[in-house]
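step: validate -> pass
step: tokenize input -> pass
step: predict -> running
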Amino acid sequence: MSRTLQNYLSQGVTKVGISPGQSTLMFIEKWRLHKIFKPEVYETPQLDFRYHALLAYINANRSKKYIELLASENKYQPSSKRILFPEPYKGFQDDVEYHIHSVLVSHKKVSKLISSRRHKTKNGDKQFENLCLSVRGSLHKETILGKRRSPEDQREAYHIRKNLAQIKTKKQVLKIVDPTIRNRVLEAIEDAGGFCGEAIPTKVFFSKNRDGYSVPNLFLTNTKGDQVPIKSVRIREILSGVVQLKEGLNQYVNLRNNHHVLIYLNHDQQYCEQVVTFWEAIRRYRFGEPIFQLPEDGEEFVTTLQINDLFLLDLEETELNLKYESKSFLAKHLYRVQKLSSKFYEFRLVHHNDTSSTEFPYYIRINNFGLRKTGWVTHNPIKVWMNAIGKLSIKDETNEFKNAIKNYS
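step: predict -> pass
step: emit ->
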């Protein structure tokens, strides 16, 4: 790639030079920049978004002189005879460290609910225009459920049909709706030696024939006396957050994503939440309702949380003037919303990309609105906005919310 780019640039530039890819890592060592991040970041750069800024800083200060110095060094030369590798300027290391830790990383926020596109076609002298609308996200999980009563105890639940090969645990076996099929499955497991803890032994329900195809091992006798293979079963599930897919049809879906969480104060001045699913947000959009609404018990709007919203956490100041705060200080407290569910808000430092880590201060979880370790009041979230050049600002979100409600009314 470098050679190809060099040949292309040489068509308009007199002299184009390239350097080996490992030279960047050598500059990190020579300029003693290996302590800016933790050691694991240098091994896996994807763990910290600011690593790209470090590479850009090195490339900006790399020159032909330093490349030639690297090339002239001999690793077999005694350390006593080696010269100290020069820095681009005095205080270079401290300067790089300060600016790297002052980088405020922004994350793309998807706020558009529906995309529209107009498709124009022409047939002879007539011109047609179609308006195409598409939802920007997944409304629900793919499985369609049916609401039925169990033949045994008449309990109402949601039923889902699953392939018998998907049944892997004892818990799933006990959820089989039909008692006859459930007993037949339990008998087959018992004949195979019983449950292995909670797991089902292998090759109980299906086996392979000579051609490598799966053939069923379980059969039931129908009214005519024929042996009918058991390939799939109905499972009973007790679910919340299920909505009817279409009116008049026994079809339900389990909602997948949350669009936002609205934090507000009720009439008793207590913090409360309203979790709005993506399904509900689309419904409000379609019927011309405000996307963000105070519920009936709502007295005062506080804020909203959406994925990749930015918040300053763990600041003692209730009134913050961002103009007088350094970026290096703000970077230590700037978090993005990573995941959202009811009273389970996960925040992660904007530059941190190890999504499996739950260590403080890289990760903060809020589970309540009190003063406990995971309390809303404890961490004091302050919502901020970042512009294209990385400048933070605090907006009057309450007035914006009120104005939005007025525009709909």
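step: describe -> Residues 179-191 form the longest helix (13 residues).
step: cleanup -> pass
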